[in-house]
Amino acid sequence: MTYFFIKTVITALIIVIVSEIAKKSSFLGALIISIPLTSLLAFIWLYFDTKDYQKVIDLSYGTIILTVPSFAFFIILPILLKMKQNFAISILISIISTSIIYLIFIFILKKIGINL
To answer: What is the pLDDT of residues 1-24, one digit of tens each?
Structure first.
């Protein structure tokens, strides 16, 4: 339980630090967030939990493949915000749209024989 708590605190701290940095410099915040911190932490936690290189490799490959549909969120959100849409609605539409694109992408991957 202590280990789980430590993982949670470290992960949360990184997110809070990045959001605080982004208040002062959106470029620096974007630079830090573009580093795959979430993936890095997931790889570290997975390895420490399992000591299994193959699980880390599989997670890494899956992450690479599933990065493609995630771009939709980062395209749709700023477009909606530039159109002066409500922030909460823009986030919701971006999430729903990205989810649909993920489903389509995964369907296509399965059709061509790629199983994650």
So the answer is: 788 888 889 888 888 998 999 999
Interatomic CA distance for residues 70 and 45, integer angstroms: 22
- Burial class for 37, CB neighbours closer than 10 Å (0-12, 13-18, 19+): middle
Instruction: Round to whole Å and give the CA distance between 10 and 8.
Output: 6
* CA distances in angstroms from 97 to 17, 62, 64, 73, 77, listed in the order given: 28, 20, 20, 7, 10
**The token pair that represents 13 in the structure block:** 């701290």
- Render pLDDT for 32-69 as a digit per residue (tens, 0 to 9): 877 788 888 889 999 999 999 999 999 999 989 989 99
First to last CA, the chain: 30
